[in-house]
Amino acid sequence: MTLLPHIEHRVTIRNFTGEPVVQKSLDAILEAARLSPSAKNRQPWRFVVIQDNEVLRQIQDAAYNEPHVSSAPVLIAACTTNVDYRMPNGQVSYPIDIATAVAFMMIQAEEEKLGSSIVTTFDETLVKEILSVPHSMRVVMLLALGHPEHRPLRPPRRSADQIVSYNHW
After folding, report:
1. CB neighbour class for 123 (10 Å; exposed up to 12, middle 13-18, buried from 19)
2. Tens digits of residue pLDDT in 28-44
3. Confidence class of residue 1 from pLDDT cuts 50, 70 and 90?
4. With a threshold of 0.90, does the pTM exceed it?
5. b/e sequence 146-156, b meaning 16+ C-beta within 10 Å
6. pLDDT tens, 94-118?
7. Rounded CA separation 5/137 (Å)
């Protein structure tokens, strides 16, 4: 199993073909999220899969008409079920837990030959209302999934020596 090629190949996809995502691929992507690590193994997540055209249109409106939201045949609302837990370092855990689960989904999407895009530009209150998310929960991010219309070139990445140090800053 070699993951690095999937990670190297992954780019943000903002234009999808509209071709449906097969259930087997969607199941594998959701399984990747289910298996991802979380603080104290609390697994503080709920993933709402959105495929209905009317609900997708409503989410598009709540996402300030972000174009890649409307072209994706699948959106996954990554929600937290535990907004209160703080890790021993004092930070709330759910943003890290949810981001990790979504990252696992994005890597599995590459394995499934699908494209993905994280969406964080949306009216959370409106999205919660559309999806009937309980008031005490949070919609942390959306993940757009589908077959890429085209794959853009990967933007340049910083070199390792610019971002890594050992034993001190």
Report:
1. middle
2. 999 999 999 999 999 99
3. low
4. yes
5. bbbeeeeeeee
6. 999 999 999 999 999 999 999 999 9
7. 35
